[in-house]
Amino acid sequence: MTASSDRPIVFSGAQPTGQLTLGNYMGALRTWVRMQQDYDCIFCVVDLHALTVRQDPAQLRHHIFELTALYLACGIDPEQSTVFLQSHVAAHSELAWLLATFTQMGELERMTQFKDKAQQHQLNINAGLFTYPVLMAADILLYQTQRVPVGEDQKQHLELTRDVAVRFNGLYGPVFRVPEPLIGTDGVARVKDLQEPSKKMSKSAASELARVMLLDEPEAIVKKFKKAVTDTLGVIQYDEVNQPGVANLLNIWCAATGHSREEALNHFSHNQYGKLKMETAEAVNYLLQPIREKFLENINNQELLLKILTKGAAKARVRADQTLEKVWESIGLPIARR
Predict the structure, then answer these.
(1) CA neighbours within 13 Å on the CB side: how many for 99?
(2) pTM above 0.70, yes or no
(3) Is 200 a known active-site residue?
């Protein structure tokens, strides 16, 4: 496949299932923005993945535009990167079906995320929830992706993607590039739940106090950090085992201000948890204020957002169809020119 440049191809995406958290931004989106300088980036709003859980149609449509506006507000540039909606490129669904015939039931049954989701949605354990990793493999392999930024919870899915690509290539030749994970990029912060700092920050957390959303008002952010869990040791040191709450606040402060951990420990050598919480809240508000402002400009122009998604889908479709035609030809299906 011919890429639009000689830079390595990166694919990533997020589900339109509500606002993004501070953890999503510090752990993913901020890294995506930096990647635009060195990679040929493809960023998708993965709306088909969101359908494994029942969605209110009007709310889903709003969340699609909301996520697109957040992409732009965080610094994703549609002139530099390909930004599009998954459902606008039919090749994602088509390749997912074809790859399903090269994916073993046992492989899918081992996916820990399926087990977790099935526990959460016991009244709707649908086939899409089970085959979710196959669609994810199609998302990645369609664009001959070389690097995939992944967190710990997605490493297993990427391994399956690699296994399916190797299996297919073993039968039909080098049709797919086998993607490599992009893990532990410099500057990535591991943001934890403010109430249960042993867990990652998640928008599905039971308590609103557990998570900071990108569009939270400044007062709400201050309140959440004031109520963040710490401990009774009365000393500010970096100890993820014995002081996970304090370590989490230090990580967030460093990520928001650009200071090193050593600088943070010197700065907070007064050992006052209240000041640590307040200064972390202030740093986060300073970081998020321009994002909130740009978001409000973008979300009120849905015509522009749809234009960006449509233009991005046209670019993505050219690449995706090239791969899909290679797959058809390899397995013996006549090529239908589009």
Answers:
(1) 32
(2) yes
(3) yes
